[in-house]
């Protein structure tokens, strides 16, 4: 009897983390609006806060699909006031890594009482070289007093290059926003990417996915899945990040495949969000 009790104790894996689980404007990307597929009534920041309330969550990351630098001061103040009243911590998301854009978002972050800014380096017409990114990060560091800048792994830079750029910037205020699916576009899977970037990760994007061979057999198709319904192994990933004690938040994002009509897609997206959170909450309680 004693040996069986001992065996259960030593093999049991931890199921929870100290990271805070939250939603994003990219959890509900179709509802917020995709160019060419705009809904009649796009989801705004207050609709996102409603979703946080409905799901009992206290963290919201507003990404570049709802760009806060286009908000006037009164709109930002209303967002900050409501989030504070409801006890929701805000995080910001932006793209186009320039000194001016980081300064702009640092100002917005302080206005809405956010402490983390996630940045995608590139934009449609903007693709700086690795050495230019390192220089930009060094120049940005003095702007980040009290803030954390998380650079997202995206399609262009391999994980090792991203790590080198951030380490050469030499600032504890700059780290990685680790997205679990984006690096597939650079030919890298999440296991290898996390092994490289875990020590620098300050924010996690949980985005589940599935890969299957195309019907004609020439190539593969990558598509989104609700969290827990695809290939992403959440527990080992969280266990990989925990020892470094830098990642404080995990944000659900979805790649929801579209339906024939945008309202059907929005309904599917909302259902996927509910299903994903039911699965994820066991890791974050």
Give the helices and strands, then pairings.
Layout: H1 2-11, E1 20-24, H2 29-32, H3 45-55, E2 59-62, H4 73-85, E3 89-95, H5 99-111, E4 116-120, H6 130-140, E5 148-152, H7 159-169, E6 174-179, H8 190-197, E7 201-206, E8 209-213, E9 220-224, H9 234-241, E10 249-252, H10 262-280
Parallel strand pairs: 1-2, 1-10, 2-3, 3-4, 4-5, 5-6, 6-7, 7-10
Antiparallel strand pairs: 8-9
Write a compact overview of the structure shown.
This protein has ten helices and ten strands.
What keyword list fits this structure?
single chain; 285 residues; alpha/beta; TIM Barrel; 8-stranded parallel beta barrel
What would you say this structure looks like, in words?
This protein is α/β, with parallel strands linked by helices and about 280 residues long. The protein has one domain: Divalent-metal-dependent TIM barrel enzymes (TIM Barrel, Alpha-Beta Barrel). Helix content is about 40%, strand content about 20%. The chain is built from ten helices and ten strands. The strands form two sheets. The protein has an eight-stranded parallel β-barrel with strand order 1-2-3-4-5-6-7-10, surrounded by six helices. Helix 6 links the parallel strand 4 and strand 5. The protein starts with a helix and ends in a 5-residue tail after the last helix.
């Amino acid at each position: 009897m004693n040996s069986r009790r001992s065996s259960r104790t030593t093999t049991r894996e931890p199921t929870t983390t100290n990271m805070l689980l939250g939603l994003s404007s990219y959890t509900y990307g179709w509802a917020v609006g995709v160019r060419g597929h705009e809904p009649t009534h796009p989801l705004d920041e207050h609709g996102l806060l409603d979703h946080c309330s409905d799901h009992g969550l206290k963290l919201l990351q507003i990404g570049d699909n709802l760009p806060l630098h286009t908000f006037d001061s009164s709109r930002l103040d209303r967002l900050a006031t409501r989030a504070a009243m409801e006890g929701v911590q805000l995080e910001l998301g932006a793209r186009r890594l320039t000194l001016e854009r980081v300064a702009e978002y640092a100002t917005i972050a302080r206005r809405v009482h956010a402490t983390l800014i996630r940045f995608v380096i590139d934009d449609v017409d903007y693709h700086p070289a690795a050495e230019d990114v390192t220089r930009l990060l060094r120049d940005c560091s003095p702007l980040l007093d009290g803030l954390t800048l998380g650079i997202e792994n995206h399609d262009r830079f391999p994980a090792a290059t991203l790590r080198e750029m951030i380490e050469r910037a030499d600032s504890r205020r700059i780290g990685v926003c680790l997205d679990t699916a984006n690096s597939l576009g650079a030919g890298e899977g999440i296991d290898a990417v996390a092994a490289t970037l875990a020590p620098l990760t300050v924010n996690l994007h949980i985005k589940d996915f599935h890969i299957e061979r195309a019907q004609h057999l020439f190539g593969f198709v990558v598509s989104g899945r609700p969290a827990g319904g695809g290939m992403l192994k959440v527990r080992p990933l969280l266990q990989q990040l925990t020892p470094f004690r830098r990642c404080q938040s995990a944000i659900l994002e979805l790649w929801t495949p579209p339906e024939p009509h945008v309202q059907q897609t929005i309904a599917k997206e909302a259902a996927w969000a509910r299903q994903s959170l039911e699965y994820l909450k066991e890791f974050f309680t």
